[in-house]
Design goal:
The chain is of the alpha/beta class. The protein has 13 helices and 18 strands. Its EC number is 5.3.1.23.
Length: about 375
């Protein structure tokens, strides 16, 4: 995507050919910095501390992490150890499991002397595939936005509410939930995005707002609990979110607070769509609420907040009453009954086992 007119991916092989570069998302929105990953441990750290985040980008980073590991130790033991370490970094995003399983199955058949080269080729393929998938998601989602635009007065924007960051920064390029927005904007369809701040890490206020702003898309940041109010007053035409894991039955797991948006959308007859690449679908699961592991992150993310002072200093302060216990579940599950449709690379699907299976029969066969 464009950053002030210059095109970037979120992850790429460095010019030295020996390392991988990423956009360090922990520095947003106050700085745009590139970090270098030289080892598998660097890749694992980047995933764990959220220098990279978003299910598709986590998977791509893990694939590069395996490649970096193969450069250091291409033995069977080295391969299994790398996949094991990387698998423990984040429990909820299924793309991590998918990418590592794909790397393990592909590389175990390659002679150790050729594994590093094969692993880097595979990581590049995963990145290119992600871009292609997200472009297809964008095209399908743009049809929804275009249809709503036809009902508007000339020049009146389609108001889209999103939650967390399912944008370019959560993928290799384009994003999932934002791909239809970017394509609509570039296609001349007037759009405006309501950006939930997305506490506690503020991925909406820090990341989504940053990338929309630098790409020139009109947007407004609102507090997380404003969505229902906006819907009640007819200020939201459509909700589009991403997802870190989707069950075979259409339940979607996304950043904490998504479920509440879906409930408000249902109550106000606002269409609620989820944009997802097929690697995010976990065909082994049927009940998202009971079966999807929910990551519990450190309470300091809730009790402390980082910001920039009027003097320009970056400071972290305490915001919770001293002595209070703090909980920090990172995700929640929205049941399929609250989802209007799933925007995938193969079209817009009904959130049901039958529709998902018909769209991706090869994935069903693989999971059997």
């Amino acid at each position: 995507m464009n950053v002030d007119g210059k095109k970037y991916r979120t992850i790429w092989l460095a010019k030295d050919g020996d390392s991988v570069e990423i956009i360090d998302q922990t520095k947003f929105p106050y700085a745009f910095e590139i970090a270098k990953l030289r080892t598998m441990e660097d890749a694992a750290h980047a995933i764990r501390v959220m220098q990279v985040r978003g299910a598709p980008l986590i998977g791509a980073t893990a694939a590069y992490g395996v490649a970096l590991a193969m450069r250091a130790d291409s033995s069977d033991e080295g391969l299994h150890n790398a996949c094991s370490v990387l698998l423990q970094t984040r429990p909820t995003a299924v793309n991590l499991h998918w990418a590592l399983d794909r790397a393990r199955k592909n590389l175990i058949r390659v002679e150790p002397a050729y594994r590093a080269a094969a692993a880097f080729t595979l990581a590049n393929e995963i990145c290119d595939e992600d871009i292609g998938i997200n472009m297809a998601i964008g095209m399908h989602g743009m049809e929804l936005i275009a249809a709503i635009s036809e009902t508007k007065r000339k020049g009146e924007p389609v108001n889209i509410l999103t939650h967390c960051n399912a944008g370019w920064l959560a993928t290799v390029d384009w994003g999932t939930a934002t791909a239809p927005v970017y394509m609509s904007h570039e296609g001349g369809i007037p759009v405006h995005v309501w950006v939930d701040e997305t506490r506690p890490r503020n991925q909406g206020a820090f990341l989504t707002a940053w990338e929309l702003g630098h790409h020139g898309v009109p947007h407004t940041v609102v507090v997380d609990n404003a969505g229902g109010h906006l819907m009640q007053h007819g200020q939201v035409d459509i909700v589009i979110t991403g997802t870190d894991r989707t069950t075979a039955t259409g339940d979607v797991c996304n950043k904490i607070g998504t479920y509440l948006k879906a409930l408000a959308a249902k109550d106000n007859d606002v269409p609620f769509y989820v944009a997802l690449p097929s690697p995010t679908i976990d065909f082994a699961l049927s009940d998202g609420v009971r079966e999807i592991p929910i990551e519990e992150r450190d309470g300091s993310e809730v009790s402390r907040m980082t910001g920039r002072t009027d003097r320009g200093d970056i400071q972290t302060i305490n915001i919770v009453a001293e002595g209070s216990d703090v909980g920090n579940p990172a995700f929640d599950v929205t049941p399929a009954r609250l989802v209007t449709g799933l925007i995938t690379e193969r079209g817009i699907l009904e959130p049901s086992r039958q529709a998902i299976a018909q769209a991706f029969p090869e994935r069903v066969k693989m999971s059997a």
